[in-house]
Amino acid sequence: MQDDVWSPPPVLLTVDLVILTMREGRLCVLLVERGEDPFQGMQALPGGFLNHAGEEILDAAHRELREETALGAGSVHLEQLGTYGAAGRDPRGRVVSVAHLAIAPGLPEPVAGTDAMDAGWVPAESVLSGEVALAFDHRRIVTDGIERARTKLEFSALATAFCGELFTIAELQQVYEAVWGTELDTRNFYRKVQAVKGFIVPAGSGRRTTGGRPARLYRAGPKTVLSPPLTRPTPSTTEKETKGEAN
């Protein structure tokens, strides 16, 4: 009796992008309105299938990033976030997504791609709370991406990726507050940042006027790992209750 010949199941591969930026002091994520089924008309992360069997996954992520933001590899922080392959995540069949986290400062208004009806920046908290519903398992991917950013702000210099080439410590603090979702004591933050040698460095004698006295300008330093780390504050009981009600 001849054994049945095994053949691999058909599996499709996509890349999805969690693109984060700061807009008007708020952490925002780029979403597109799907122009076709499945989930036509719903909000989703930008992304898509590989162009061809020979396209590398990272190349596909950079391609999607260029199409959605016109940004090249040298002007944005891009890292692989995770692989999402639950059997029922896509009604079209077994589709596995390799998600990536992208961060850049002051990104402009996006232009929808060929397979999207619209594109825009949405406050991250609106996605995390479920106020904005997303297609597929994209809310989980966004949640994972933001948590990755929150954790890396503690131990790495990732926060500077949200800033322009030159920034003030107040603007850097605004990044931490927006990503962590909590207010920080200004004096304590200044002291902690200055204690991490090489995290940020003075940009000459330049200063920026932001309504009060001129503030010194800084740029990202050579250090990528923060020691000591900037530990994320533990949410207060009130904040936990508020988040629980939102979810």
From TrEMBL:
Annotated region described as Disordered, given as residue ranges: 204-247
Keywords carried by this UniProt record: Hydrolase
Residues of the signal peptide: none
InterPro entries xref list: NUDIX_hydrolase-like_dom_sf (IPR015797), NUDIX_hydrolase_dom (IPR000086), WH-like_DNA-bd_sf (IPR036388), WH_DNA-bd_sf (IPR036390), WHD_NrtR (IPR054105)
Gene Ontology MF term list: hydrolase activity
Record field: compositional bias (Low complexity): 226-237
Keyword Hydrolase set for record: yes
CDD domains membership: NUDIX_NadM_like
The protein, known as: NUDIX hydrolase
Organism field: Streptomyces griseoviridis
